[in-house]
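Objective 1.3, modelling of assemblies. Example input:
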Amino acid sequence: MPELPEVETMVRGLRPHVVGKKIVAVEILDPKLQNMERTLPLPITVASLSRRGKHILFDFGDQTLVLHLRMSGRVLWSKRRPAGRVRLSLRFADGTVHLVDPRRLGTAEVVRGFSDGLGPEPVGDLSWLPPVVKESRMLIKLWLMDQKKIAGIGNIYAAEILFRAGIAPDRPANSLSRAEVGRLRKAIPAVLEEAIACCGTTLEDGLYRGPNGEIGAFACELAVYGRAGERCRRCGSSIVRTVLAGRGTYACPRCQR
DNA sequence: TCATCCCTGTGG
DNA sequence: CCACAGGGATGA
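Predicted structure (tokens):
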């Protein structure tokens, strides 16, 4: 579920509660997570909390707790155990971080040194992007969602970025013109930064919330995602849903070529 | 580059 | 009942 803006929202919301604070107890409530190989020596102080792609990193200095929320996970801060399927709890003196994950696809592991195969972050300077995109024969939407190419973009934001750039999702990456790659390069950080400013996207199911219960207001800004059959806000055409690599794919057939 | 699987929940 | 869901590893 959560993509970069949602994970970023969770990390920002959690930071003041956990950085410099001690975890006094860890509770693993889902046997699937027993492969949190190493056990943390408790109590242990959180040196910093950060995001890399869609991963959440609790840094303890020599060890790192890495969470990945996959489709349905979220983290929240509360004094008491929340409703829903809690899989992991990190208890601090004045509250607890809960990993809630109804589909149980999320992962948690303790590692020494987080070495990932992730591509660069999709914010900031993207001058590296045009040459790399022009080299790939992947469909552009799948390229955007490939974490090894660029880290943090998922199904919602791939659709929104491509709408913003005016590019059809099923175009091979190496078929994009110079101008199109230029628009893509600008659209990626623009869409993600707007979404972060909105605290992400809470869909109608309400599954995603920020760690303190915030609603992700970017749902109101979605131009194409989840809008099959509705009017394009720019040209009035009907938004079309297709399937690419098994994922629902939304686009305006007129604005995106 | 794909289908499939991992899981569970929801909605048609 | 079946289709589908903010992700990603795997194997053909």
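The radius of gyration of chain A is 19 Å.
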